[in-house]
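Journal club prep, notes for RB
We'll compare a predicted complex against what the paper describes. Inputs for the zinc ion case:
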Amino acid sequence: MKKTPLECPICKAKMPLDKLAPPGMCFECTTCGASLRIDQGHMYVVKGCSLMAFAVLLWAAGLRGIPLFLVFIGGGVLVLQAAHFLSAAFWHPPLEPCPPQGMTLFPR
Ligand SMILES: [Zn+2]
């Protein structure tokens, strides 16, 4: 996997990690004020891998059926948050301009 710097696609300024918004949310570039978000394709890969690893982990821990389902749903939210911040820290996701409000309901 290619490690790309976390930089504004508009002004090329480096973005501090603590300015990152949760996945899918838009945030402003601290330098030029452009509306940005983490590349969605990148986040789908990160989320998909994280959830699969989480499911395998629960299965390996002996959970089956309804308990597995409940723990997966409950823990999945935490896993996604953790995956988001870990990926931002260790595998810098590319940023992309944030689409106008109202278009975020239709991910590409
Ligand atoms: Zn910028």
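Talking point for the session: Residues 8, 10-11, 13, 29, 31-32, 34 surround zinc ion (CB under 6 Å).
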